[in-house]
Predict the 3D structure of the following.
Amino acid sequence: MSIQQRLLTFIVRSNWILLALAAAVGHFTASSGVTLGIIAGGLIVTINFHLLYRTLKKSLTPPHLASPNVVLVKYYIRFIISGLVILLLIAGGYVNPLGLFIGLSVVVASIMLATLYEVKNNIFKEAV
């Protein structure tokens, strides 16, 4: 398995694991608004990550190479829709903004964990 595929698999799995852990911690330590914010933010960012992966895979796989403009338009459409959903969640008082922020950080945390994991693997591989 290539390093790119290994990183992607690790990130996808850790997204769901971190989301579940954060939601569980939020459920037992914070109000329901914070917990709903964590879950909503985590779902928004994880779904966006999967949609971005699908868009890039379809656009960069021959023979269906797409224009960079098409990729950018899809990206901005997702960005605007995500922004509107976040605005509606906060303005409607459905979620706590702090919980939403924590949930939106799930993919970033997954990427950081994957990077640390690969760095650790490379250091120990070279040491042997």
Helices lie at 3-29, 32-60, 68-91, 97-104, 106-127. The first helix runs from residue 3 to 29.
